[in-house]
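ok so i was messing around last nite and threw this chain in just to see what happens. nothing serious, just curious
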Amino acid sequence: MDGFEVLWRIKDPDLKNTVVNDVGEVNYHDESFKYGVLSYLTKPIDLRLLGKA
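result:
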């Protein structure tokens, strides 16, 4: 099971999701927002951005 399947199974509109991924490809970014993700961060994570996610 990948992260997109987890997001699809949760299906909770009140849950705020942030994806952290080591892949910064546009298709992963765009697909994440289709699942209701509010933030998409790539590794290595800048901890200053994590607080804003």
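not much to say yet. The mean pLDDT is 79.
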